[in-house]
Amino acid sequence: MRKIIRKPVSMLASLALLFAMSGSFGCAFGEIYWTDPLKREYSLGEIQKRYTQLVRFGAFNKASKFVDPELVEQFVADFPPQGDLVFTDHESERLDFGEDGELDSATVRVTYSAYYTHSPVVFQIIETQHWYREGMTNDWRVRPEFEGLQEFAAAN
């Protein structure tokens, strides 16, 4: 009778051990991205989030490090002096990768809420971020387009 009970218990223990080991291998080797093995989408998501937060907190010079080198000067010039413009919130849509399947470009729209320190009126700035990378690197650059920033600045 003991043999009959012992066999299912040892089999159950073996299955539990196998399950635990397979979970530890998953942690050891990280996630598997079948459609994007180089994790370009993940790295772009992190870079886009960092860039957006820098803009949101008014760190335009730091954010400019992510901007296409040809657009950096204009990017910094478009914003008023730090402290004049205060961002209160932002909301990002999903990253939309190009339809060519190459995963070398993506677009995302971000809506910021902001106000000028001399005016209590909250307004929205919409930024369309066009992200690209050259070659197989994860060195993503953005070509930003802002709607609403210049119009509101001219009115105040």
Question: What's the gist of this structure?
Answer:
The protein has helices at 2-29, 40-56, 60-63, 72-78, 149-155; strands at 85-92, 96-97, 105-116, 123-132, 141-147. The chain is of the alpha+beta class and 156 residues long.
Could you characterize the architecture of this molecule?
- The protein is an alpha+beta fold and 156 residues long.
- The protein has 2 domains: 1-30; 38-155, Nuclear Transport Factor 2, Chain: A.
- The chain contains 5 helices and 5 strands, in the order H-H-H-H-E-E-E-E-E-H.
- It has helices at residues 2-29, 40-56, 60-63, 72-78, 149-155, and strands at residues 85-92, 96-97, 105-116, 123-132, 141-147.
- Strands 1, 2, 3, 4 and 5 form a 5-stranded antiparallel sheet that branches.
- The longest helix has 28 residues, at 2-29.
- The chain is elongated, with a radius of gyration of 24 Å.
- The model is unreliable at 25-34 (pLDDT under 50).
- DSSP helix count? 5
CATH topology title of the largest domain: Nuclear Transport Factor 2, Chain: A
Q: Give the CATH class of the largest domain.
A: Alpha Beta
Note the beta-strand portion: 25-35%
- Using the 3D structure, state the CATH architecture of the largest domain: Roll
- Report the biggest beta sheet as strand number plus sense, adding barrel if it closes: 5 strands, antiparallel
Gyration radius, in Å: 24 Å
Order of helices and strands: HHHHEEEEEH
Please give the share of residues in helix: 40-55%
**Terminus-to-terminus distance:** 89 Å
- How many domains? The number is 2
Class inferred from helices and paired strands: alpha+beta
Low-confidence stretches: 25-34
Kindly state the number of beta strands: 5
**What would the average pLDDT be, to the nearest integer?**
79
Shape: elongated
